[in-house]
Amino acid sequence: MKLITAIIKPFKLEEVKQALFDAGVRGMTVTEARGFGRQKGHTELYRGAEYVVDFLPKLKLEIAVTDDQVDAAVEAVSKTANSGKIGDGKIFVLAMERAVRIRTGEVGDDAI
Amino acid sequence: MKLITAIIKPFKLEEVKQALFDAGVRGMTVTEARGFGRQKGHTELYRGAEYVVDFLPKLKLEIAVTDDQVDAAVEAVSKTANSGKIGDGKIFVLAMERAVRIRTGEVGDDAI
Amino acid sequence: MKLITAIIKPFKLEEVKQALFDAGVRGMTVTEARGFGRQKGHTELYRGAEYVVDFLPKLKLEIAVTDDQVDAAVEAVSKTANSGKIGDGKIFVLAMERAVRIRTGEVGDDAI
Amino acid sequence: MKKLPVILWGLMLPAAAQAQELNTGDTAWILTSTALVLFMTIPGLSLFYAGLVRAKNVLSVLMQCFTITCLASIVWLIYGYSLAFSDGGAVNAWIGGLDKAWLAGIGRDTLSGTLPETVFVMFQLTFAIITPALIVGGFAERIKYSSMLLFSLLWLTLVYFPVCHWVWGGGWLGEAGLLDFAGGTVVHITAGVAALVAALVLKERTGFPATPMPPHNLTLTVTGAGMLWVGWFGFNAGSAVASNGDAGMAMLVTHISAAAASLTWAALEWVRHGKPSVLGIVTGMVAGLGTITPASGFVGPLGALIIGVSAGTLCFIATNMIKRTFKIDDSLDVFPVHGVGGALGTILCGVFVAESWGGAGYADGMTMGGQLGVQFMGVAAVLVWTAVATWVALKIVKMLVGLRVDEDEETEGLDINQYDEKGYNL
Amino acid sequence: MKKLPVILWGLMLPAAAQAQELNTGDTAWILTSTALVLFMTIPGLSLFYAGLVRAKNVLSVLMQCFTITCLASIVWLIYGYSLAFSDGGAVNAWIGGLDKAWLAGIGRDTLSGTLPETVFVMFQLTFAIITPALIVGGFAERIKYSSMLLFSLLWLTLVYFPVCHWVWGGGWLGEAGLLDFAGGTVVHITAGVAALVAALVLKERTGFPATPMPPHNLTLTVTGAGMLWVGWFGFNAGSAVASNGDAGMAMLVTHISAAAASLTWAALEWVRHGKPSVLGIVTGMVAGLGTITPASGFVGPLGALIIGVSAGTLCFIATNMIKRTFKIDDSLDVFPVHGVGGALGTILCGVFVAESWGGAGYADGMTMGGQLGVQFMGVAAVLVWTAVATWVALKIVKMLVGLRVDEDEETEGLDINQYDEKGYNL
Amino acid sequence: MKKLPVILWGLMLPAAAQAQELNTGDTAWILTSTALVLFMTIPGLSLFYAGLVRAKNVLSVLMQCFTITCLASIVWLIYGYSLAFSDGGAVNAWIGGLDKAWLAGIGRDTLSGTLPETVFVMFQLTFAIITPALIVGGFAERIKYSSMLLFSLLWLTLVYFPVCHWVWGGGWLGEAGLLDFAGGTVVHITAGVAALVAALVLKERTGFPATPMPPHNLTLTVTGAGMLWVGWFGFNAGSAVASNGDAGMAMLVTHISAAAASLTWAALEWVRHGKPSVLGIVTGMVAGLGTITPASGFVGPLGALIIGVSAGTLCFIATNMIKRTFKIDDSLDVFPVHGVGGALGTILCGVFVAESWGGAGYADGMTMGGQLGVQFMGVAAVLVWTAVATWVALKIVKMLVGLRVDEDEETEGLDINQYDEKGYNL
Ligand SMILES: Nc1ncnc2c1ncn2[C@@H]1O[C@H](COP(=O)(O)OP(=O)(O)O)[C@@H](O)[C@H]1O
Ligand SMILES: Nc1ncnc2c1ncn2[C@@H]1O[C@H](COP(=O)(O)OP(=O)(O)O)[C@@H](O)[C@H]1O
Ligand SMILES: Nc1ncnc2c1ncn2[C@@H]1O[C@H](COP(=O)(O)OP(=O)(O)O)[C@@H](O)[C@H]1O
Predict the structure, then answer these.
(1) Whole-prediction pTM value?
(2) Which ipTM did the prediction report?
């Protein structure tokens, strides 16, 4: 099992969700995040006091998948989250040792 | 060392925290999240414009534990976060290579 | 590749970001979090009803790094986030199997 | 001695009104006061309350206050004003008649004292709006919308219109000489007692008192508090139904009592908990304003100061007792603040109306003892009637449409559940 | 019969004013009304609108309303008041003159009826402020700041000042006997139609209607709604330009219509969607208030009730049609609420002004049919003129500075993009 | 020439008042103005300020403003009104007496001009409330609650009551012919200078200016701004203490100055930073309102326009200088806006009061040069006295209870730390 973490632009969520769903993924968890990277931030200005904001709004998706889903899922995200513009985000894949569905106590692939 | 990620229903936090504490866990980090899964979302309706909201409010707990705590911790969460209803959430366990307590510089099990 | 998760005090963000940048890190993702640990929380009191709040505001940084950056990055965080006071936070390091830059499709170290 | 408003509203209106001429200054002030008192409910009170509930129920409170505003207005037009302020004939001691139903006979030129009667109708309507809206605090975060709607309709009919008639419309309490300038009994005791009864009948919110239910947005509450204070100038100084020295003194004593009660509450918190709080100080304000209300046309500045300090003290104690000792989930503390305050003010009015205290003085032949007797009687009668009639109204509602959402809906929150809306999408 | 305000404002002012004396009560009420109507725009309307957009555009809406407030004020001083309310000589049917440009000749002692003319200037200015501010809802979340600024200037000049003169300033529609007490045509039709035209010219927001764009903070919207209701007392009852029974009746019918339309809208939602909603009930309120506006000085309580129910119904249907059937992105539903409501109210006024309905009665020699003819003509003329002139104004703006931000800027949000600011840093 | 209010308030009140009769229209307008000016502080100013601080300190600002409201009210009752407005006998040039302490002798029938004296007491009290509340912006986000409380008490006593007496209570500046209609010196210079001194004595917030401290919620600020604008109608037009052409003109010029200064500020930002901003435009508004305040009863529309543009320009420059050049942490820019604006307006009043500018004209025998001399003297005297007395007050507070929270508490935030509360639980 893998845990995929995807950082994407907020307005891409619906599309990415749909693509993941089409790739057989049935669940995910989303968190609001702010990202720092190559994408240029903006400046805020309050009564002449300037603040450089280099953290930009992103969404972080965490998607647990079975080993055989991982490629399709990564593919789904990387395709739909791509706007071709800087700041589109990253996908990170980590190995996951154990998964539990709290309601049923199922573990492993069944829990996902 | 393991990093446990638990997605739970928000109103279960206090109970889960207490159970983890009883299981010897002395720290955790919580993030607001929105979850998509089998649990049905709801519809919002604004002047006749309908929005299907299929992301539901969840909390994400991250709990670093030593190898010998992991079973007790998973057990603690899965028991107390369980309401028997769909959407109770998941527990994911990942291997952790290194842990540092920033204040003291302690590493490994001591840092947790 | 590694995924570093650092829990820090919110007002340390700018300093930590700068130190990471100096250590060659070119990106990171930040999330608002609430932490429970040894640091004492506070009490809130509303018309005589008392609420003990033991979750304190923290920031969670996620930093993907190449294997040769990891020590410098951990060092950078643990140094700058340290205020010497309880609650300074933790650093967790996990192995990462895959990384993708969504915009370009680059993978591995190039994606970071 | 000037037991002015009671007499004016209660008796002389129907008869003597024609004799007076329209005064544009008086009219201007009551038009303004009407706006101020409506402002107290929307957005004032609704923000005050909305900030105190959890984020998932913020809209439900706003919706309840807003709906009550609309509902009370239509009912007022159809029969409310008539039941409260027209002559009830044989049963006039208890209730008005239906002569003025649909506001029959009230035209552009109809006067009521020195005002157009339309203005008097509107001014009084704003009181009929805020009173049931105050009750929302008693059943917040768990009542169904339909139940709230039906309850408010029944409650206005069974409690507000009759009691308003008793005191201001020519009924028995006004006749008996009860001093209630702007609604200690009519507004605050009725609302406070109703909220307590509702809290007892609906039972506590799931999780109370173990689960923390902190206010979700105190900036809303403090905003609402400021609006309430300002609007209360219309409530009390408007109740002089004139733009004169009575109105001026009513405004002054209202203000002093609010300030004194606020500081008292903050000081008591400071002593008892080590820190004052902003929720505390604004709650003290409401206590001070509610308590001075019945007395605002009768007492002087010193009386107001004492009333304010008493209000801050007694309501502070009462709030703690209801919540912690009796563990009653009168969720936004309506009874300890409005019910206790309204009763306290009605009674203290009997003392501080004395000219020796800078008050307007007793009616001819009335003594302090006699007045206090009347005041106690008024408090008791309104309290008992409200408790019984509220209980009956709730039982009827329960029978017809039920009262509470179920537990899952309560957990989900009323905003999504009852209205398909969410308060914040930040 | 009292076709009072139209005549008063339109014709008698310049001539007869000198004969009257200052009345402090009338003056007090119009000073107050001025404050109330300004309050409707800032913060009222701006909060109402701000809550409805997405968080990234919250400041842009506040900024647009605030800027329009300032801009309209300066233009009013320079030539707006003069074009609207001074004598236009040969072309007086169509537009006023420039005699009062820079408020020439208006001093502390100049009267306008029983008021200082300064007070009349200020009161009328608040109407010239809120009308272009209402249009903001039509082009929200996508217009450039500079375009909004230029457009508002052109629009005031091409639409508001002329139409205001036609109806209230001695122009042809007032002369023809059009009944528009407080701005059904002058304010609501002009704003509604302009918003629709703007929505069509600017095209929809990127993503509309597929992407959900739910309101980001309904507590702001409901707060604004309460302020609008309260402020509307100044709008309508202030339009009596006196503190008397006309003002009182205007306040009463305004209130009844608002309450009736609110409940109607909520009921329709309940029937159609299974639940009422707080956004629905406050939208109904705006519909009820907008619709009663032209009629508020002419009809009685029963007329108001029927007008309110009609407003709630028709505007509800119109809102759904514009958005879902025609898929027009009049983003905050200005046309279906204000445009449709303003037209509806102007027409119904022709019916319910009848004395048999408790209204003020027709002018001598006028019949219901005749009056309805005038009302229809007024609606049609204002609608057509507004549509054409708005379209021209938008084309000019497009030519000179463009209209929309580009797509990336729209995605980023106008707050950061146009103002270097962010609404919330919680 | 009508140097009306100064003379009226300062001298004629005690003596001549009895001769006049109560005017219900005047009374209505001042009752209303009182409500408007209280509304400026709660919730107006407190929201304006609350939005500008960081989320962890939002309640502290609301709490400070609210507490000051209460405190000033009680002190006003006990001795404030008397010190400011009663006759001081031998020292009357400097300070009033204690004859009216506890409002002795002020009953329902006591008049002050054409108003009940209670109304005058209340109206003036609202000025004594907002002035110390303005200072909050100077020491925001770091002062202890107890220190704020004690400081406000001392400051009112040492600065506000005396200066108010000097200018409006029969003291030396009023006698010298200083023109200050509604508080350029009494309110804005005192508050602005006090904030600056407080900022210097308390020192900057930890991290200033390196750490970004952006406003946490500009919707609150813009909401408060709208309330301030509306409430300012009561502040300035109410200062006519009558419902007449003076009040009307005061409202008009107030409005024009606000609009002009807002647009000026936005334009300067646009030129200098490439974009206007909503915080900028509302700051311009405050500058315009503060600056016109002393002149509002004396100048005409053109004077107001020039005053507005000057205010927007000078305060814009001053804000940048204080913060960036001098790196003084007058956290919410009270001095550059209110202090500079108040001084500017007081001086410009000496020019634009000229009849040639459409103003009310100079007093008999007074020339522009002479008037300007008086105005400069007034500004200088109030500035120096305020600076010294504020410094003394702060030193006393520091000695008795300290001034700042410690650094950890500042990091944690005042809301949790000083009040055990949190602003938002969304
Ligand atoms: N090393 C990293 N670790 C964690 N998150 C990163 C890292 N680099 C980038 N990100 C995340 O990805 C987002 C996009 O990265 P950025 O460098 O701006 O653009 P791109 O991915 O198109 O090159 C960032 O805003 C940040 O949230
Ligand atoms: N594959 C997944 N990856 C990440 N999070 C998931 C995944 N599946 C479910 N979740 C999280 O768990 C929550 C509950 O899942 P759901 O399928 O609704 O119910 P249940 O776990 O009871 O079957 C979701 O809201 C989501 O936050
Ligand atoms: N076992 C853990 N798992 C995850 N997060 C932890 C754990 N222990 C502590 N934390 C995080 O680190 C923060 C600081 O920990 P705390 O024990 O308060 O202080 P310190 O790290 O200085 O000993 C906590 O608020 C929490 O966010």
Answers:
(1) 0.97
(2) 0.96
